[in-house]
């Protein structure tokens, strides 16, 4: 009951923030309508790169007046600096289990020179490159202590459909919300999980230290340190952990993977079809609402199976989780929240999923691998749609996707070796904290600068009309 109360406290906090944003926006809108001159503010075009105002192509038509800014692909300091930042960002993002959009979007807008929408599209290409490489790398990896895949497919079935549904909602909210609202939500949504990840990392580090000290003490007494360290698990576990790679055919849960792929195909088809309808028409809203039975149906099936004990989150080991209805509803709600913030801010959503997986009790390696696995579906769907709408230059996208792919493999390999040598899986949690905090600073800083400029230019800062915006 204490856990449930804590989660409801978080939900109430989010509702209070959203309510405050609605009230404040209404007040600001009323004030500005009295002060603005005819045609001033609402239709003014600002030439400064708006990194935060990420409007996905699924929420606008080809007639919106969008003007792309694509720099020439030639060797220079911008490409070199972008490559270096992208390489390190993708490496740490793949290990931390996040997409890395909080680093990529400002990089493409402020360094490479893309417009804001193209920066988001390019960011998604890098996320897909790094996430796909990480997934293929992890498909052969085993659970750090159990004879299981490192990817928890039941956990993915519970959250992947909700993430994709939330992204569709977040894209629409991105059009409706003003820049200052997005900036406030960004800072809140990034700082809260980053703080929780930091303290979770410290807690895990302390447990690892106690375990290492106990093993060292036993070894100094001439006893075998390995057996006591694992006497609370299956006796065959030490032999299992020596083999970290197995055949992909045996390690993949094909049934679950097939269901996740089917959800991806259906939602992608609905999103593509929506682009060929008139905004706010009956067909437009019908295609939007058709996503609900598909995504909610799959997640509900998994949730009911967990509740009745037909399926389990096996990656937790022997720890028993009592799946109460309210707990499952809260988890699914956070899955939708991760998607909403991902669509609203143009990031992957791993900054919410990964800390939540850690709170559930999933080991850091499994949490990171599963989070990346889930994000691969949502990000790849965005890239396909961006390509159909020609939102990014293909040569640029292929180059930076290749950078992210190589970096992700190198990062997984090197950090895996370091963790094996040091016995510190908490390093993954600290990397997660660093990525989320860096994203909060970069996107938050640019967002605040954009809001200040909007105030100086007396721009309209209330809610937008999604139907008018797309015409």
Structure description:
By secondary structure, the chain is mainly α. Helices cover 72% and strands 0% of the residues. It is built from 18 helices and no strands. The radius of gyration is 23 Å and the shape is globular. The N and C termini lie far apart (49 Å).
TL;DR?
The protein has 18 helices and no strands. The chain is mainly alpha-helical and about 475 residues long.
Low-confidence stretches: 1-5, 7-11, 20-66, 225-242
Please estimate the helix content. Answer: over 70%
Give the topology string: H per helix, E per strand.
Answer: HHHHHHHHHHHHHHHHHH
Task: Please give the largest β-sheet.
Answer: none
Structural classification: mainly alpha
Average pLDDT, rounded to a whole number, is 75
Total number of β-strand segments?
0
Beta-strand percentage range: under 5%
The helix count comes to 18
Q: How far is the first residue's CA from the last residue's CA?
A: 49 Å
Radius of gyration: 23 Å
| Shape by Cα distribution | globular
